[in-house]
Amino acid sequence: MNRSIAEILTESVTPEKFSETLAKTDGSFKFDLEAMLDFGKVYCSLYPESVDHSDSQQVVTGYKLVRILIIENLLKGMKPDLKSMYREILASASGVNRYLPEVITIEGRDTAVDLYRELDIRVKDIKEIIDSLPNGVVKERFTGGISVFYNTLYLMKKSLNI
Fold it and tell me: Total domain count for the chain?
């Protein structure tokens, strides 16, 4: 582990640069309660108008940053050729229909089901940490950021007929 997610955000600032830099870590970053709180402090200082919700774009940026962070954590340890497909699957609902059939073709249905189950466990583990965050902006951004993954997992489950 090199830099913390808070340090990466400080250096990156934009969601695009943050995503690019975080992807290069291959999931090798601390992602616990303390790391989430530190990340939240940096987010609040970089996007201060999100704290009082006076700038809705800064609020949306917070959710986007959290989703990027969660995706890269979920992809940790995944085979490189699958990472790019699962990054797309997790980034949008349309990614499920577009890339999951390709995963099944390349890796087989059993592997796709196993990956779904692993992702489901990881999302639940992350949610458990989020639930332990103190109430406030940071918890709100993480709660909103993770919510989309429940939809994605549902779509994956339906596509896999499990």
Answer: 1
Classified as helix, coil or strand, 78 is coil
Quote the domain boundaries for residue 109. 5-160
Q: In terms of pLDDT, which residue wins out, 142 or 81?
A: 142
Determine the Cα–Cα distance for residues 37 and 5; give it in Å rounded to an integer.
10
Measured distance CA(152)–CA(20) in Å, rounded: 22
pTM of the model: 0.93
The C-alpha atoms of residue 139 and residue 61 are separated, in whole angstroms, by 15
Angle between helix axes 93-107 and 80-91 (nearest 10 degrees) is 150
Instruction: Report pLDDT for 2.
Output: 74
Q: Which residue, chain included where needed, has tokens 């954590």?
A: 73
Rounded alpha-carbon distances, angstroms, from residue 29 to 4, 6, 74, 93, 124? 6, 10, 12, 26, 18
41 contact partners, CB below 8 Å, separation of at least 6 = 6, 138
Instruction: Look at residue 5 and give its three-state secondary structure.
Output: helix
- DSSP state letters, 117-139: HHHHHHHHHHHHHHHTSPTTHHH
